[in-house]
Design a protein that fits this description.
Length: about 90
């Protein structure tokens, strides 16, 4: 039987998210960028079901996704002609 992090947490076993990322995804490095966004969203939707470290990492990963989707202030200023003289 394979246990998920959520199931283990529910029965009182807390695991290290870095260990999970290394084992499941072969990733070693920045936790903010290592967690797959789909999993981060799932954790963020149900934060009480996961250890705090997982929720924190998921929040950071979702924040990165939002940052990548935003247009820079400079581009908006150029498009909307904020500083053009009339």
């Amino acid at each position: 039987m394979r246990y998920t992090a959520k199931k283990l947490y529910r029965i009182g076993i807390v695991i290290d998210i870095n260990h999970v990322l290394q084992r499941e995804y072969g990733y070693v490095g920045s936790l903010r960028q290592a967690l797959p966004v789909e999993i981060a969203r799932k954790i963020a939707r149900h934060p009480k079901s996961y250890p705090r470290s997982f929720v924190f990492a998921a929040g950071q990963r979702c924040e990165i996704e939002v940052e990548h989707s935003l247009e820079s202030v400079g581009n908006v200023a150029l498009k909307e002609k904020w500083f053009e003289r009339t």
